């Protein structure tokens, strides 16, 4: 299941590939990060800050614009919602990159570039507010439908591509084990991926269909190895050489963590089949401010560097981006971004300062701006859960070796109760009325390590979260 987060991110990226990523400083900051590292960082942000601000008064993003003051270029995005969806970003990173509705579940997203409508996205949701499908129109006319099982896992993705009067249809299928871990991802006679799980290890093998031999041919293999606490420590990749069906070692990546469990180093090596040795190291160093999981430092060997400062709320205040200069053998600053927040700690503006070509230094005036616009609305019976949990929620025994008992005074709400691994895998999921549902969770088959119990209401608002230790 740990691979599933990477898979779904890739699906989402494919679906929205037509949309311009207006958050260029953010893109530069994360685009070079490996899928594994992005997954680690995403889960890292969830663990300490996993509860959204869901007070009675909420705000949701309804508009976004990006302006380049040097050439007058302007893009705008408008978002519309139904019901109570759309509130709260888990952290300022989500807020910054969520200009297109990635995290807020809008019904409609309109993108306008220099006064021209280029994209109209319509989303539909099921009774659990999970994405059921979306259509993308503008210069393309595409539609996706998602079929889910009772646990909310996507089991079929149907894609429709309209070219003139012709409609092309393709499907992708997924299967899961009894712990809701993906075991198969396939398309009809096109490609498939098999997933396997063991003690502190999981793997996948990707195949493509060969019409000549009418058989599946292995193309790639990946193996993840985890610590006892569920942290990814080693990632292997295997691939086939041209004209070969044999999977050979390609790369291996080691991950190092600090005492807070935050990743601080990604070291990748390539395999030399001729000498049978590992080498050509590439290092990605990461840094933080105390126990805040928000990245404040990233440095990729002789390529890119990012430094961030935080405000009193623990969100980004200013970030500085640097590029490596081969001629001087040092770092050149190429821009900085300064953030402005509202009373909800949501970003209202991100001001970009770029190189002044006349002086060669960072401009002292704003050269571009991202604006975020919100709607304030009221949600009846909402609860306040800001980086805290309900004290009336109890779990025992904890540490647990067999059955975990969950109790607490939530009332008669309909809720979802999940167990999440520290790397983001959803290992257990059940839903129902809190008063009548079975609140016992059998964790005897789980690997030893740290997990999170997450309880949400029907709107996806997080009601409670507790750390669970399995031994």
Automatic annotation (TrEMBL):
Family annotation (InterPro entries): Secre_tail
Keyword rRNA-binding: no
Signal sequence region: 1-17
Pfam families listed in its UniProt record: Por_Secre_tail (PF18962)
Keyword terms: Signal
Secretion system C-terminal sorting domain: residues covered: 396-469
Name of the protein in its database record: Secretion system C-terminal sorting domain-containing protein
Protein's organism: Taibaiella soli
